[in-house]
Amino acid sequence: MSALRPVTLRIAAFLTVTTAAALSLGACAPRPGDASNNNGHAANVPLATTTGPAVSCIPITSIQESRVRDDWTVDFRVSGTKWYRNTLPNRCSSLGFERAFSYATSLSQLCNVDIIRVIPSGGGPRGPLNACGLGMFQPVTLDKEAKK
After folding, report:
1. Is residue 17 part of a domain?
2. Which residues contact 56 (CB under 8 A, 6 or more apart)?
3. How far is the C-alpha of 48 from the C-alpha of 68, rounded, in Å?
4. Residue range 112-134, pLDDT digits in tens
5. Residue 24 belongs to some domain of the structure
6. Residues 29-60: pLDDT tens digits?
7. Residue 39 vs residues 47, 63, 93, 138: alpha-carbon distances, Å
8. Would 14 be classed as within a structural domain?
9. Domain that holds residue 121
10. What is the model's pLDDT at position 134?
11. Is residue 32 a part of any domain in this protein?
12. What's the number of CA atoms in the CB half-sphere (13 Å) around residue 26?
């Protein structure tokens, strides 16, 4: 009888780990009922027209502004009026709510292999909330209302 106990414990441990993994992956998917457009992103993401091929990196020194649009989308303004839209490959939970992120890189560029960290509002001892991978940087022209 004691020989069965370790097998039972292993199965229970496997189910616990599997359930925890499934719960943590739920944060990466859109919730049913979220207001979204055809891409699964929030409806308040401004429309943009692609102006060229996507690039994997943009120079950090040329970044003049970043605008978090939702949990998937960040627009970067570089060199005056040029914009790059970065659509994250996975949802970055709370990014759209907090609208602030940080990054660290040893290069002079921000690239699609880099990680951003959501910064919580109000400061405090919590530190960064989520770490999320960037996507490709797509050059775009934003709708005029979105630039305001």
Report:
1. no
2. 111, 112, 113, 136, 137
3. 14
4. 999 999 998 876 566 667 899 99
5. no
6. 333 333 333 344 556 788 999 999 999 999 99
7. 11, 26, 17, 15
8. no
9. 48-147
10. 98
11. no
12. 9
